């Protein structure tokens, strides 16, 4: 999901306010539950982005759905978005908030793709290698893809390290196609 500048500004403000009010964990819980509902309910997602429904009605329905189920801070924030004609970016704001939360708490998410499931020893080695970079917590999201044949692909933030057998075979294939292997006399 592409995050707009407006969504980024709103999520930053919500994070700062939640930290200031010492409600960061509660707001995160609210956001996780609302995000889950948005992903499950296509009708609710469509309703929020609808240009046919006016913003007052969106605010009224959102209040009836979430009032008493989320913190006042979260509810007031959702109302603010609706009043500012920004209910359509609620999902974006929440996705950006989750990323900002991880940065604030120094939690690093690492995606590891391997040909087979990682062993506990390998998970520990990955975490230990990255913990040296002063992250408080390392979360490993694993994907098994037999097409990489062996090795692994590690992605985090904007970095990728490809130590897969398929990538190494691709490099060999590329060098053969460039005829680098021909011995010069």
From TrEMBL:
It is a peripheral membrane protein. GO terms for molecular function: proton-transporting ATP synthase activity, rotational mechanism. Its main location: membrane. Keywords: ATP synthesis, Cell membrane, CF(1), Hydrogen ion transport, Ion transport, Membrane, Transport. It is found in: Cell membrane; Membrane. Transmembrane segments: none annotated. GO terms for cellular component: plasma membrane; proton-transporting ATP synthase complex. It holds the Pfam family OSCP. InterPro entries: ATP_synth_OSCP/delta_N_sf, ATPase_OSCP/d_CS, ATPase_OSCP/dsu. This protein is part of the stalk that links CF(0) to CF(1). It either transmits conformational changes from CF(0) to CF(1) or is implicated in proton conduction. Belongs to the ATPase delta chain family. This is ATP synthase subunit delta. The lineage of its organism: Bacteria, Pseudomonadati, Bacteroidota, Flavobacteriia, Flavobacteriales. The gene is atpH.
């Amino acid at each position: 999901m592409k995050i707009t500048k407006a969504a980024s500004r709103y999520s930053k403000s919500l994070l700062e306010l939640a930290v200031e009010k010492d409600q960061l964990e509660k707001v995160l819980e609210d956001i996780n539950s609302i995000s889950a509902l948005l992903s499950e309910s296509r009708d609710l997602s469509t309703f929020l982005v609808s240009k046919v429904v006016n913003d007052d009605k969106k605010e009224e329905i959102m209040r009836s759905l979430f009032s008493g189920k989320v913190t006042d801070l979260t509810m007031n924030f959702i109302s603010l978005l609706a009043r500012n004609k920004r209910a359509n970016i609620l999902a974006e704001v929440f996705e950006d908030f989750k990323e900002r939360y991880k940065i604030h708490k120094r939690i690093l998410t690492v995606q590891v793709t391997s040909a087979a499931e990682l062993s506990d020893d390998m998970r520990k080695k990955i975490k230990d290698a990255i913990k040296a970079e002063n992250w408080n917590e390392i979360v490993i999201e694993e994907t098994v893809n037999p097409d990489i044949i062996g090795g692994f692909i590690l992605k985090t933030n904007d970095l990728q390290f490809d130590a897969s057998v398929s990538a190494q075979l691709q490099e060999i294939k590329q060098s053969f196609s460039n005829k680098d292997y021909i011995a010069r006399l």
